[in-house]
Design goal:
heterodimer; A: 110 residues; mainly beta; six-stranded mixed sheet; three-stranded antiparallel sheet; globular; B: 125 residues; seven-stranded mixed sheet; four-stranded antiparallel sheet; 11 strands
């Protein structure tokens, strides 16, 4: 039951777009359209920003978008802003009523 | 508004148990599951399991089987997570979150929409 694989860090300049990948297996990401993404600031609780691969909760800017291809899900943040600097975690349903998180990605806004 | 308020930080000795509470407000506790996630300092999120507050049914990550117990008291809209046989590796912030299921398909939890503020559990002699 290994964690989903995410890059340790990504960076981008204000106004640019960045994409964070989340690679799983045919038993989790590849098997279900139940990938979610969370944003976490230091010392704070995670916040849901994407669910069911590409749906955004109310109040989340449309700069945040999600997609999936095969065993890899992706989070894209367009029009990067300083306030987007945070840690991002992917999560996937993994069958048998279990969830699996990714290792997390630190986004730096240059 | 939906809120999950957790109990305060605690220090426990190795071998002891800890019980963290999570009080729900702004919705009916029995309408959604409660999922527990922990995070060691500087580390990622780790899913521990879920509980259906309506039925009391639970599902635990294999890693915690036999060591974790999730319960609830619906009269006070509160869920609990108890972890036993603590070691220093259990030092972490523990979060409760409201878990969402795809009820029609009997699948879940699939994501967590509201989170508690976290409870720091320190295991130290």
């Amino acid at each position: 039951q290994s964690a989903l694989t995410q890059p340790r860090s990504v960076s981008g300049s204000p106004g640019q777009s960045v994409t964070i990948s989340c690679t799983g297996t045919s038993s989790d990401v590849g098997a279900y359209n139940y990938v979610s993404w969370y944003q976490q600031y230091p010392g704070k609780a995670p916040k849901l920003i994407i669910y069911d691969v590409s749906k955004r909760p109310s109040g989340v800017p449309d700069r945040f978008s999600g997609s999936k291809s095969g065993n890899t899900a992706s989070l894209t943040i367009s029009g990067l802003q300083a306030e987007d600097e945070a840690d991002y975690y992917c999560c996937s349903y993994a069958g048998s009523y279990t969830l699996r998180f990714g290792g997390g990605t630190k986004l730096t806004v240059l | 508004q939906v809120q999950l308020v957790q109990s305060g930080a605690v220090v426990q000795k190795p071998g002891a148990s800890v019980k963290v509470s999570c009080k729900a407000s702004g919705y009916t506790l029995t309408s959604y599951d409660i999922t527990w996630v922990r995070q060691a300092t500087g580390q990622g999120l780790e899913w521990m399991g879920w509980m259906n507050p309506n039925t009391g049914n639970t599902g635990y990550a294999q890693k915690f089987q036999g060591r974790v117990t999730m319960t609830r008291d619906t009269s006070i809209s509160t869920a609990y997570m108890e972890l036993s046989s603590l070691t220093s590796d259990d030092t972490a912030v523990y979060y409760c979150a409201r878990g969402r299921w795809v009820v029609a398909a009997g699948v879940g939890p699939t994501f967590c929409d509201y989170w508690g503020q976290g409870t720091l559990v320190t295991v130290s002699s």
